[in-house]
Design a protein that fits this description.
It contains 8 helices and no strands. It is mainly alpha-helical. Among the domains are: 67 residues, 434 Repressor (Amino-terminal Domain), CATH 1.10.260; 51 residues, no CATH class. Helix 6 crosses helix 8. The N terminus is likely disordered.
Length: 171
């Protein structure tokens, strides 16, 4: 089999490209969905980190109903997913995008197992538990003695905060 040479240096020719070399909407969506999965994020978590105004629109980009490779939101999606310049050229070789390293990225705290259990168990009742800002706020807490040991303990702490109007990043 003779490989098809790409008119775009360093980018393999895919069958699913338009005449300008831009990746097909479904292929671009799949590429970004794979990166989202690598991060272990849900669409809502990605939406919170991008300029995409609506998670439904982001869902359309990731499903290939709208071509993410041609979207004005590609840069912010790329930054959130830690894509490099080569990844962006793969999606759309015509784009010139500077991906700046994150400035002052906050340290991420590991999510304790019991807190993750609380997120999994109670997020239907308390959807804010799915938000990274709440997860990091709770995970960063210091306690006298031991940390909460059960999902119920973490949920009680979360409910106490919300009852008293305490919000992460903006008390």
């Amino acid at each position: 089999m003779i490989p098809t040479l790409s008119p775009f240096p360093g980018i393999p020719m895919a069958e699913a490209r338009d005449k300008d070399g831009v990746l097909d909407a479904r292929e671009a969506g799949k590429f970004l969905r794979d990166r989202l999965q690598d991060k272990g994020w849900q669409i809502q978590q990605l939406a919170e980190r991008t300029t995409v105004p609506d998670p439904d629109y982001l869902s359309n980009l990731l499903s290939g109903r709208i071509n993410a490779a041609k979207s004005k939101h590609l840069k912010s999606i790329a930054q959130a997913l830690d894509l490099n310049a080569e990844d962006i050229r793969y999606l759309n070789p015509n784009l010139v995008v500077d991906i700046a390293p994150p400035q002052g990225r906050k340290m991420l705290y590991p999510i304790p197992e019991a807190l993750q259990d609380a997120i999994d168990r109670y997020s239907e009742r308390a959807p804010d538990l799915l938000k990274p800002k709440w997860q990091q706020y709770l995970a960063s807490m210091r306690f006298r003695g031991s940390r909460p040991q059960t999902a119920e303990d973490w949920y009680d702490i979360y409910r106490d905060f919300t009852r008293h109007g305490i919000e992460p990043e903006g008390n």
